[in-house]
Specification:
Pfam families: Transp_cyt_pur (PF02133). By secondary structure, the protein is mainly α. The protein is built from 19 helices and two strands. A two-stranded antiparallel ribbon has the order 1-2.
Length: 510
């Protein structure tokens, strides 16, 4: 494509359009490349942003209370950490996350662009495919796995309502029984439909799911608390002490941050729709420190209460649900857990690959088409087989995940310390070799080199047994390696210009 080729982009008069299709009537703006721009990759208009502090809070109201997080936190109790130590670890982790997610969120609010486009600032207009696809690959695998885990809960609901359905669990086709396939496909279809309506529908679903989840976990905690005669065991009888306790707390805090290592990377996918920086701060404050404290109290009620009852800590809230004596309550609680899993899956594992694919083929894919392709990939990889294979989980997902820490360090240092928030949003969409983010043939070799160096070290930390003792701190170490390496290699000469993207911005319409 020649440097003076043009693409049709929306004019200010087109903001009210409800048709996101390529055939919409656009004004002409020179220099914007169709290989880098479409309505879903475009910056969001200031006037069209709808994500309030409550919208952001409900992201965390859902994600923090995921079943995986509960399994992890209850495991700390079983490993000998007292209730106070667990709350302390969550508090340290929450403070780190509040800072990291606020800084990451500000980037989306300022530019209005999704993560793959944001990555063009550091890696170049073509080089941004590297972080986009790495993040998307991790997310799409976990999308399938989380859908499979939720389908197991759905099977419990179906059998509770229709006991004869238990016979459909016999036999197997490609690793799933007939009931397994019905449950998985039902949840797969529901999630695909929600995402096909875009980020606005995701916002509405998260806003609906948040209160449902909070009420459900309060009810479960109170039920266990009552069963334990309104008292709990503060530890499992053999608590950690001294240096071992503090090392365990800091390691748990670091691991808590690492759980969100993927999300801090592409938080801008959501905050690009934030009404203001204040919305991000308020949403993060109530959703992270405050909500995580509430999460910790629920963990103590569930783990300490069950330990007080029978001397054994549960492994998951699903154990509490399974023990409910009333079928109606069991079904309602199970449905709430399914609502939760869908909410977490949408925000953490569906949005990232959808934007990554849109960024890969912007002339052919919009958000809806890319969402459908992401869903199909999440199905055809047969994620239940991945989940049941330690080799696949350990090598593929942990290997890709190890590279996300360095990516975060590189992108944050480049945005905040090198370019100091001076971003030319218009140049994020041009292939002109004079564009600020063209670097060398569309790739920033310094960022790529920093990723190779720090990523290699991160993989060594992940897979070499010698470093197992510091594995809890691996995300922080990897992110720091990426940040330091890029800080040394980066080109600071500039000049870096600050140009907003309102000229080519699009109001969210789906």
């Amino acid at each position: 494509m020649s440097q003076d080729e043009v693409v049709h982009v929306p004019s200010r008069a087109s903001e009210g359009l409800t048709d996101p299709a390529p055939s919409a009537v656009f004004a002409i703006n020179a220099g914007i490349s169709p290989r880098l721009y479409n309505r879903d990759l475009a910056p969001t208009t200031r006037s069209g942003r709808t994500w309030s502090a409550y919208s952001i809070f409900t992201l965390w109201a859902n994600d923090v209370h995921s079943l995986g997080n509960y399994v992890w936190a209850i495991g700390l109790f079983s490993l000998g950490m007292s209730g106070g130590a667990i709350l302390g670890a969550l508090a340290f982790g929450a403070l780190f996350l509040f800072l990291l997610l606020t800084l990451s969120g500000y980037m989306g609010e300022k530019t209005g662009v999704p993560f793959p486009v944001m990555s063009r600032i550091s890696f170049g207009v073509y080089g941004a495919q590297i972080p986009g696809l790495l993040r998307g690959a991790v997310a799409i695998a976990w999308f399938g796995i989380q859908t499979y885990l939720a389908s197991q809960v759905l099977q419990v609901v179906i059998i509770a309502i229709a006991p004869s359905a238990a016979g459909m669990q016999e036999g197997s086709f490609l690793g799933l029984s007939a009931l397994g396939w019905i449950s998985f496909l039902a949840l797969w279809v529901v999630q695909t439909i929600i995402v096909s309506y875009g980020m606005e529908m995701i916002r509405k679903y998260e806003a609906f799911a948040g209160p449902v989840i909070l009420v459900t976990f309060v009810a479960l905690a109170l039920w266990v608390f009552a069963q334990a005669d309104f008292s709990i065991a503060w530890s499992n009888g053999d608590p950690l002490t001294g240096a071992e306790l503090w090392l365990g707390m800091l390691g748990a805090a670091s691991a808590w941050v690492a759980i969100y290592g993927t999300f801090v990377l592409n938080f801008c996918d959501f905050t690009r729709g934030a009404m203001s920086k204040k919305s991000i701060v308020k949403g993060n404050f109530w959703g992270i420190p405050v909500n995580m404290l509430f999460f910790g109290l629920v963990v103590l009620a569930l783990a300490g209460g069950s330990f007080k009852i029978n001397g054994v800590a549960i492994s998951s809230p699903a154990d509490v649900v399974a023990a409910l004596p009333n079928t109606v309550l069991l079904v309602l609680a199970s449905l709430a857990l399914i609502v939760l899993t869908i909410a977490v899956n949408l925000m953490a594992n569906f949005v990232a690959p959808t934007y990554a694919l849109t960024n890969l083929f912007p002339r052919h894919l919009n958000f809806r088409r890319a969402a459908l392709i992401s869903a199909v990939i999440g199905l055809v990889i047969l994620p239940w087989n991945m989940y049941n294979s330690p080799v696949v989980i350990g090598i593929f997902l942990n290997g890709l995940g190890a590279l996300l820490g360095p990516l975060f360090g590189i992108i944050m240092v480049d945005y905040w310390l090198i370019k100091k928030q001076r971003i030319n949003v218009l140049d994020l969409y041009t292939e002109n070799n004079r564009g600020e983010y063209h670097y060398r043939n569309g790739f920033n070799p310094r960022a790529v080199a920093a990723l190779i160096i720090s990523g290699s070290l991160a993989l060594i930390l992940t897979f070499v047994p010698l470093f197992h003792a510091i594995s809890s701190f691996s995300w922080f170490i990897a992110a720091s390696l990426g940040a330091l390496t890029y800080a040394v290699l980066a080109d600071r000469r500039g000049p870096f210009t600050d140009v907003d993207g309102e000229e080519i911005a699009v109001a969210p319409t789906h």
